[in-house]
From TrEMBL:
Protein name: Pyridoxal phosphate homeostasis protein
PANTHER family: PROLINE SYNTHETASE CO-TRANSCRIBED BACTERIAL HOMOLOG PROTEIN, PYRIDOXAL PHOSPHATE HOMEOSTASIS PROTEIN
Keyword field contains Cell inner membrane: no
Family, as annotated: Belongs to the pyridoxal phosphate-binding protein YggS/PROSC family.
InterPro entries: Ala_racemase_N, PLP-binding_barrel, PyrdxlP_homeostasis
Organism annotation: Rahnella aquatilis (strain ATCC 33071 / DSM 4594 / JCM 1683 / NBRC 105701 / NCIMB 13365 / CIP 78.65)
HAMAP family attached to this UniProt entry: PLP_homeostasis
Entry-linked CDD domains: PLPDE_III_Yggs_like
Family matches, as PROSITE patterns: UPF0001 (PS01211)
Subunit structure comment from the entry: Monomer.
Alphabetized Pfam families for the sequence: Ala_racemase_N
Its biological purpose: Pyridoxal 5'-phosphate (PLP)-binding protein, which is involved in PLP homeostasis.
UniProt keyword annotations, A-Z: Pyridoxal phosphate
Length: 239
């Protein structure tokens, strides 16, 4: 990686952090409430290393094996890195997620929760999980309906090797700020409802490069940013 690209990641991270701070300031929230996840899918370990050098320690990955490879590459790093699985999870890949990641954002059915719970090594802290909600995109197969959250939440809460931390959503692409806010507002309300049965649920994972300000205004506590940090992805080399 050339020197100019290295500087680009550091500069991009600084820009994203400033945008988070500005969006938080606008709605009167402390920016420390909002965790920046750097989404490093399809990017090489060298890019992750540059982000680490710029003070970024939380990363999101979509593809199980790619994520596991990077986790192994950076094993034992101090300060500790946090690895979040944010991609669709098939049951035949659940063991790798249970054994390697710190968080899983895309829990949307009981069977996967049961497998993760069984497969999470007892030597590790519980896997921190979010229920993925299908908030706006009826055509999407990922995520559960709002009215199904409570039932799945109760089932997860009975699992000793999982800790339910909140909700995640990937809304349909929407460029209008007011409409983004409306959709994210439904997630904020859903988290409040969830907190009635699960007080430890403190996390709303929502907001990507193009809809981050609205997500923060609606109460997001974790934004997932890829392109604005690492640049455009080249899918021809991955998958
Ligand atoms: C790729 C991805 C992101 C990051 O998207 P950008 O548009 O690159 O910021 C965030 N969340 C999920 C679930 C993703 O798959």
């Amino acid at each position: 990686m050339s020197l100019s690209q290295q500087n680009a990641i550091e500069q991009n991270l600084q820009n994203v952090r400033e945008k988070i701070a500005a969006a938080a300031h606008l709605c009167g929230r402390p920016s420390e409430e909002i965790t920046l996840l750097a989404v490093s899918k399809t990017k090489p370990a060298s890019a992750v290393e540059e982000a680490i050098a710029a003070g970024q320690f939380a990363f999101g990955e979509n593809y199980v094996q790619e994520g596991v490879d990077k986790i192994a590459h950076f094993a034992g790093h101090q300060p500790a890195l946090t690895w979040h699985f944010i991609g669709p999870l098939q049951s035949n890949k659940s063991r790798l997620v249970a054994e390697n990641f710190d968080w899983c954002h895309t829990l949307d059915r009981l069977k996967i929760a049961q497998r993760l719970n069984e497969q999470r090594p007892a030597s590790l802290p519980p896997l921190q999980v979010l229920i993925q909600v299908n908030i706006s995109d009826e055509a999407s197969k990922s995520g559960i309906a709002l009215h199904d959250i409570a039932e799945l939440a109760r089932q997860i809460m009975a699992m000793p090797h999982l800790t339910l931390r909140g909700l995640m959503a990937i809304p349909a692409v929407e460029t209008d700020y007011a409409r983004q806010l409306e959709v994210f507002g439904k997630m904020r309300d859903a988290l409040k409802d969830l907190q009635n049965i699960c007080p430890q649920a403190d996390t709303l994972s929502m907001g990507m490069t193009d809809d981050m300000p609205a997500a923060i205004a609606a109460g997001s506590t974790m934004v997932r940013i890829g392109t604005a940090i690492f640049g455009a992805r080249d899918y021809s080399v991955k998958q």
